[in-house]
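Explain this fold:

***
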Amino acid sequence: MGLFGRFNKKPKQSAGEQEFYLSFSDKEHQRAHLEKSSQLGCAIGKSALARYYLEHMPDDEEYMEKAAELYREAEVLGAKLNYETVAKVYMKLNRQEQAMENHLKAAEEGDMDAQFYSGYGYAIGRGVAQDYEKAAYWYQKAADQGVAAACNNLGNLYAEGLGVVQNGSKALELFEKSAGIGNALACGNAATHYYEGKIVPKMQKSLSVRGKGHRGEGQAVPVHFGSAVQRGPWYKER
């Protein structure tokens, strides 16, 4: 074997890694391969098995406990975790503080869903002390990435003056953005705040939502400010 061939040789896979990769090619026995990989101390095998439990047994508390433990073990072994997925496990277990801890880790890494959930957690005090300024910060991060629910909720903060300086124009701008992405509730919130005198839309202003609906995909469905739509200040669209 030549010099370059010797240096380019791929490192030998451990038995645990072999079981992990077999889980992709042998779907019929995927769980068995992942469990074997985990038992052999493979970090990526433990992480993958935790995700398997989350995807296939999300309502089984025993398996969610196992998933949480597997994620902890995988991280100790050096696995790079998807913290938003870890947060979902803790949400299933109703451990809100641990869920929020992982939402924030994922949010710091730029995960848009985690940024939304971080804002939501701070807005209602779920897993952390209620803090509207931090809620606005994370909602803004998620809104910048096009998360409709974040635009809607941030709009409510601006309309109410919670954690930010009250600004009706900014609130309306965010409601419009949210509705344009496909969140119909933003139209109702805009209507409510308009009637409360917190935002003043332009004359004859209306919002439209594009998406799937009774008129067909891609068609505009106008929703005017006078529509009677239930208000949802902390609407969670996930």
In short: DSSP finds twelve helices and two strands in the chain.
